[in-house]
# Entry
Amino acid sequence: MKYKEIIFLQGEEATEALEILEKEGENAAFQYLLQWHCGESPIIEGNSPFGNTDKLFYREHFIMCYNNKVGYIGLIEVM
# Structure
């Protein structure tokens, strides 16, 4: 799998994004994370960056992964 990591937020950095996810849903959280998409990330080739217990949200060629219990959220672009 080839992908670009757009943003990965964990702990305190993830608080705002996870609150948006909880209150407004996956679409709103996706839009919030999309603000970091600038096209300058390097292409990574390898295994998917998701954990076994992550929840995934697919939109076009993007995948948002999150885990409320662990406290992180991220967005990748599939190449």
User: Anything to note?
Assistant: The chain has a mean pLDDT of 94. Residues 57 and 64 are 5 Å apart (CA to CA). The longest helix spans residues 15-24. Helices lie at 15-24, 26-34.
